[in-house]
């Protein structure tokens, strides 16, 4: 157990935010509402592809006239010096894509803290929302923890759960967690500088860690159960690149599907019917509700089987 040191309440505590995307936006909003003096924001360049559904931390910082920096390598010596010169009371990281060096973490007088979108110690690392659904978890959440020398392994100061429904996708779960963060972070950040939080060490026996997922990781293995494949589809559905299979050299992206229990025996990947499109799995059958051929801007863009080369009896790879 670790008791939190607190900043003086007579002046606004200073903080540097390292954040990106919706969660970073929620974090910056919360810091402002909680009365922090945000002396600078470190973020990444906004991507047109990602701004389909993410808010811009840069835009919010500009609105409040907060200096914004977007270094390629924040741990480069010149940036370490700059951050130490700012001498913040706190450092907060939220959805920032680079781990901070010890030299940066130590620059915060009262500690450096991360907001992580999972129920630590489960799902340390990257792509935690996607992995939560791939693994079939029934709940997720957000965790406020201290940053130490092991990523996502520091003492936990606050944590709240959110349920994952059987119909949730990574996008709907992302929205649930972002809405939760918007409500809770102003409270947590106030409690942080008022010294009302106590850190509890993580239970290493319950820890799990997963890496960053890449588009090619969405290739479906039809030997898996229909339920596991459906979880993969939910985890990678739009606006993520989608779970996919190969059909005679063409890419079939599956956006939505359901499991049909079956005792019949087929070679996994066998197309059982066209209308509706049903495919045999290692266990049970997958009925495809929404799909597209090749790369499409959104699900449902190209749902015609005609001309796709898909026929009953063929085996998808």
TrEMBL record:
**InterPro entries in alphabetical order:** Formyl_trans_C, Formyl_transf_N, Formyl_transf_N_sf, Formyl_transferase-like_C_sf
State one Pfam family annotation.
Answer: Formyl_trans_N
Q: Name one GO cellular component term.
A: cytosol
Indicate the segments forming the Formyl transferase C-terminal domain, all copies: 215-293
- GO terms for MF: methionyl-tRNA formyltransferase activity
Highest taxon, organism lineage: Bacteria
Q: In what residue span(s) does the Formyl transferase N-terminal domain sit?
A: 15-186
Alphabetically ordered keywords of this record: Plasmid
Has UniProt tagged this entry with the keyword Membrane?
A: no
Record's protein name: ArnA
Its source organism is Candidatus Pantoea soli
């Amino acid at each position: 157990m670790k008791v939190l040191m607190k900043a003086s309440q007579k002046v606004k505590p200073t903080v540097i935010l390292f954040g990106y995307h919706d969660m970073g936006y929620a974090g910056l909003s919360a810091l402002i509402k909680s009365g922090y003096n945000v002396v600078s924001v470190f973020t990444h360049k906004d991507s047109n592809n990602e701004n389909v559904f993410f808010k811009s931390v840069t835009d919010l910082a500009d609105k409040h006239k907060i200096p914004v920096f977007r270094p390629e390598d924040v741990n480069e010596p010149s940036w370490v010096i700059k951050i130490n010169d700012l001498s913040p009371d706190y450092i907060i990281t939220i959805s920032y894509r680079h781990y901070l060096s010890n030299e940066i973490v130590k620059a915060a007088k009262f500690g450096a803290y991360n907001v992580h979108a999972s129920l630590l110690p489960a799902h340390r690392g990257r792509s935690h929302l996607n992995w939560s659904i791939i693994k079939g978890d029934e709940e997720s959440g957000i965790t406020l923890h201290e940053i130490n020398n092991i990523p996502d392994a520091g003492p936990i100061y606050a944590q709240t759960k959110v349920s994952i429904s059987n119909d949730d996708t990574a996008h709907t779960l992302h929205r649930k967690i972002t809405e939760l963060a918007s409500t809770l972070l102003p409270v947590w950040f106030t409690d942080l500088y008022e010294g009302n939080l106590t850190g509890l060490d993580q239970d290493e026996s319950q820890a799990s860690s997963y890496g960053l997922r890449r588009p090619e990781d969405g290739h479906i293995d039809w030997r898996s159960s229909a339920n596991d494949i459906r979880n993969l589809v939910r985890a990678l559905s739009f606006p993520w690149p989608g779970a996919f299979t190969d059909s005679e050299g063409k890419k079939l992206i599956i956006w939505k599907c359901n499991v049909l229990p079956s005792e019949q025996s087929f070679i996994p990947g066998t197309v059982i019917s066209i209308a509706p499109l049903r495919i045999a799995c290692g266990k049970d059958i997958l009925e495809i509700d929404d799909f597209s051929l090749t790369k499409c801007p959104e699900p449902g863009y190209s749902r015609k089987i005609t001309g796709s080369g898909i026929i009953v009896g063929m085996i998808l790879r």
